[in-house]
Amino acid sequence: MEIFENFKNWVKDRFKDDVLISGSEIRINSIFADDNKYHLWCSPKGGKDKIKNGVYHCFKTDNKGSLLKLIRLVDKCSREDAYEILNGKKTIRQLEKQLFEFFEKEESCENKKDKVVVNPIKIPEGSFLISCLPKNNFWRNLAEDYLNKRKISSEGLFICNQKPYKARIIIPYYNKEGSVIYWNARHIGKSNLRYVVPPKSCGVGKEDVLYFPHGIYHEKNDDVYLCEGEFDALTLHALGFKAVAAGGKNFNLKQANVLKDYNIIICLDNDKAGIEGGCNMFRLLLQVSNNKKIKFVTPPVQYKDYNDTLVGEGENILRYYIKNNQKFFDINSPFCTIEDYLKVKLL
Fold it and tell me: Cα dist. 336→24, 113, 293, 298, 324 in Å?
């Protein structure tokens, strides 16, 4: 019964109104298809030594597997973490995490007003992990065709098939605990409004958050590449660089504070707004950064941004270019430094 209760609590927390629980029967609106009739059936019965007996089955797509697999798909977590959800016990890794969080809370709250503190929000209704949809699913094929042209993996990205975010790729922002705190919705057609963000009623704005690809936060003193958009950050992440995105050219002191312990390389678009945005980032980072030697690199002059460069030149050339075309900001004359550097062409 303990596994049943643990799984039931997990389902209620993750799926909210998209779940029906009647006795020992648990049914969910399927994550594998457009569903409003609870086609995903789950059976969590079994003792602690029989967790493998716990299974799910989507009767709309015939997708099936263990409950451990289902939890890992939804939470994007390790097998160990999924086991803990069902088993209800804490491992040494969890206890270490709790201990770290305890000491972190004990730290000084100096400059608290400039820190980013955001509560979790929900992914838009009708959104599904692209990689979890059936291979012949229309929305999966539409999204993957668009992403393949940008040479971006669909890993961790959602596609929405309901208004008001229909035909948009949902890019989730995660906090260190793995909760969604923000998202950006990028249209994959020819909409005049390329990006749509969460409504103001969610209580979080673009200026409150930073995008860490796949929720991977970096270690102190790491070299971190600060981009404008999420696709540029995903591009650099795929090339092995530790990246983060501001979600646009605007940048404020709260966001700068999140980055103060990193060695920042500013990587903005190849246009006037990108130059001005980079200078603003430099000035704000200079106020709070523990490393005053801030670098920058701009895309080759024939490309707008790093994702365009990836599409045009490929991984190896872009990786080489970024590694070998970084410069330090000139504290006394950042504008001239950047404008001079824009003249560099791709070899």
Answer: 69, 33, 17, 14, 20
Amino acid at 127: S
| pLDDT tens digit sequence for 155-203 | 999 999 999 999 999 999 998 888 899 999 999 987 778 888 888 878 8
Asked if residue 138 and residue 44 are part of one domain, the reply reads no
* 164 upstream amide cis, omega within 30 of 0: yes
Which stretch of DSSP H or E encloses residue 129?
Answer: strand 127-129
CA distance 299 to 270: 6
Could you tell me the pTM of the whole model?
0.63
Q: Chain centroid to CA 5: how far?
A: 30
222 and 328 both lie in a single domain? yes
Q: What is the pLDDT of residues 242-294, one digit of tens each?
A: 999 998 778 889 999 999 999 999 998 877 777 777 778 888 888 887 766 78
Q: Which residues of the chain have pLDDT under 70?
A: 1, 45-53, 88-119, 291-292, 330-347
CATH number of the domain where residue 236 is located = 3.40.1360.10
Q: Taking Cα atoms as reference points, which of 108, 106, 84 lies closest to residue 94?
A: 84
CB 188 within 8 A of CB 169: yes
Of the residues 205, 237, 270, the one at which a domain ends: 205
Same domain, yes or no: 221 and 137: no
Overall domain count for the chain: 3
